[in-house]
Specification:
This is Deazaflavin-dependent oxidoreductase, nitroreductase family. This protein is α+β, with helices and mostly antiparallel strands. 26% of the residues lie in helices and 23% in strands. It is globular and about 40 Å long.
Length: 180
């Protein structure tokens, strides 16, 4: 990994780490070997809420296996802010046709991550999974749907369970529904 300081350190710069991950991800078609090797990640591009410029963030994710059985919009497919799992089976099915779920943890900080604030202002986002790139509509899961998707996230990425316990805000669970 490019940055070796602990994430809690004041000298740790997530922007440097994220850019290294983004560069490797795009150069290898999502097959990370140097930064976050073995992680199941996607790249989420949002539009800055004040700048209007695109911002890309690497995020861990899980597919939404329900196919919108809970009545949520867009039964096209399936989709989390931490890395985990290999995801090989999911990837072979064509992630661009399935909903994906991401977790707006911000490393359990007291405020939402900027990428989440951006998508609240402009919910149309761009998602990259391996070599597949597609536009998606982002929405925040609520109620029983949030609970079900949160459990799927924790099952796929067990390390994120402690994030909710470390903050008083409810960490958003975000659904990325492909627009094509």
């Amino acid at each position: 990994m490019t940055e070796t300081r602990p994430a809690q350190s004041r000298e740790f710069d997530f922007r440097v780490v994220n850019q290294a991950v983004i560069n490797e991800y795009r150069a290898t078609g999502g097959k990370l070997e140097k930064t976050l090797a073995g992680s199941r990640l996607l790249l989420l591009t949002t539009v800055g809420e004040t700048t209007g410029r695109p911002h890309t963030t690497p995020l861990g994710y899980v597919p939404d296996e329900s196919d919108a059985a809970d009545g949520s919009a867009d039964a096209a497919g399936s989709s989390a802010d931490a890395a985990g799992g290999s995801g090989e089976a999911d990837r072979s099915e064509g992630s661009g046709s399935r909903r994906l779920v991401v977790y707006a943890s911000n490393m359990a900080a007291g405020e939402h991550p900027q990428w989440y604030r951006n998508l609240l202002a402009q919910p149309k986002v761009t998602v990259e999974v391996d070599t597949d790139r597609f536009d998606a509509q982002a929405s925040t899961a609520t109620g029983a749907q949030r609970e079900r998707l949160y459990e799927a996230l924790v099952e796929g990425m067990p390390g994120i369970r402690s994030h909710q316990e470390q903050t008083t805000r409810e960490i958003p669970v975000v659904i990325l529904a492909p627009l094509r």
